[in-house]
Every structure is written in C-alpha cells, then in structure tokens.
Amino acid sequence: MSAAANLERRFATDLRSSGRRLEGYAATFAHEANLGAFRERISLGAFRDALSGDVLALLDHDPGKVLGRTRTGTLELREDDKGLAFSLDVPDTAAGRDVLALAARGDLGGMSFGFLVPEGGESWAGDTRTLTKIDLREISIVSAWPAYEGTEVALRSRRVAHGHTRRVRAIKLAEARQWA
C-alpha cells in the first residue's frame, strides 16, 4: 500500500489574513479531537523532526492546488507551545484569489494537515491516541469543519466580531457539524 493511501488528515481553525499572507495554526496541542472510533491528541514536539522536510500548502488537500511550500520559502512552519504555526504567501492564482476572498468573508472552515505516523510515533491509552511524532506531508486550507477545535478563523485586517456575532457563528458551526 502506498504512503498516500495511509495519509491521515486532521483539521484546526486558526487562520488570519493580512494582504496576501495567511497565518495561523494548522494544528494545536491543547485540544483533543473526537474522530468517532477514537479520540486523538498531539504532543508538544510531535512536529519537530518534520519541519526540516519539504511540506506543501494545499487547498482542500488537492495536490493540483498548491499554494506554497517550505522548500521555496513561500510557506514557513514552526512549532511553538500552542501548536504548528504557519505563515503562507498566497500566490496570485485562481486558487489563491479564491482563498483570500473566502478568508475576507470569513467563510473558510479552517486548516488541516496531512501526515503519516512513523513507527513509535503514537501511544494509546484506552480509546485515546496520542501522537508523539508526525511525518508531516502537507497543510491545507479547508472549507470543511475541523476535527481539532479550539481556535477560530479570523481575518486579521478586519475588526474582530463582537460577542453576539461570535456566539451566533459558533452555534451555526455546531449545528452544521451535526450533519457533517
């Protein structure tokens, strides 16, 4: 079986935009994801070894919609105490323009990452898997719902939504997840 067939994907929702640059977190450490058959969390340091490789930034995990990559410097990744932070220079392509327009409207669902788990890179406690080492292949800007919650999509250059607006949006997202 090929590595692509074994590639796992997880979602987060921290995304900010300023000009043609998107920034945020593709994964966070503080939240546990309920993946149906099991729960999952990511340990601090899990991405450390993967940051030296060539990682792609994609739109909706589509390899035909490359938005950047670490090898060219258009995608920068770093791990901090919160999670896997990224900074992406969005290209002036159809996919890039779409991403920026959706970010400006607040319509993006968040971020995701595609990965493999190397041998010894996970531990289990009951039905909870903890990822301790991740072979990161790509991060993606997605329009779907995140598996890893706890952050939110925001356009950095716009005024932050007031409490009522944020609560209404949170309720709508929660309702949408029921049907996903």
TrEMBL record:
Which positions, given as ranges, span the membrane? Answer: none
- What GO terms describe the biological role, i.e. biological process, of this protein? proteolysis
Q: Which GO terms describe its molecular function?
A: peptidase activity
| Record-linked InterPro entries | Peptidase_S78_dom (IPR054613), Prohead_protease (IPR006433)
What does the UniProt keyword field contain?
Hydrolase, Protease, Viral release from host cell
Tell me if Signal is a UniProt keyword of this record. no
Q: What are the boundaries of the signal sequence? A: none
A Pfam entry, by short name: Peptidase_S78
Ranges for domain Prohead serine protease come to 19-163
- List the coiled-coil residues: none
Q: What is this protein called?
A: Peptidase U35
